Amino acid sequence: MTDILEPHDRRLLRRQMLADDVYEAIKTMLMDHTIRPGGRISIDGLAREFQVSSTPVREALARLESEGLADKEPLKGYRATPLLTLEEFEDLYSFRRLLEPWAARRAAELIDDTGRERLAAELSTAVEPTSVDYAGYKSLTAHDNRFHTLIAELSGSEQVRLAFERTHCHLHIFRLHYDRDTGPEVLVEHRHLVEAICSGDPGAAEASMTQHLINSMSLRLRGIYDQP
Question: What is the pLDDT of residue 2?
């Protein structure tokens, strides 16, 4: 028998869909710097622009605050968070280089058929970017987050997984810069990582993750801070 949503349930579903749409719209504006980093976010202005009440806008900003993309200032409202400074950028990658190579090593030590299937399934969702904006990179950003979170989970340490998730590093890194050439490189490195983990070779998995992070930091992103 097909389940039929009651009117109250349908209203809740519509509200959730509306809230999600508003969240994605504001997130895109933040990622593309349509709302400039550090700039004030007008709840009333966004509500008028999206032709909605202030409620879904406030709900969206609360979610974005939890991801580190918006800051709430007492008695002043919300601002977009600034981009990572060079010091914050280097600190984030120092943290990742402590955490993620260990997670990859442990994942290779513990890998089983279920883990291999989950890694292969996640790789199959990866899509190269279609444009140099958040819309083009959205799928890759989501995949990057799921992929690294999955490796942390396969390490067997819930604390490691939570520590990685709390950085929301994928959002802050992609917010810095979009480059159509980045996508294929990232996906090739992801495939190498999966091969190393699935082969059950802890040393190769650790080395592959370390190189992946070095490439991301030094080859793909570090030069942003040298630009005038």
Answer: 43
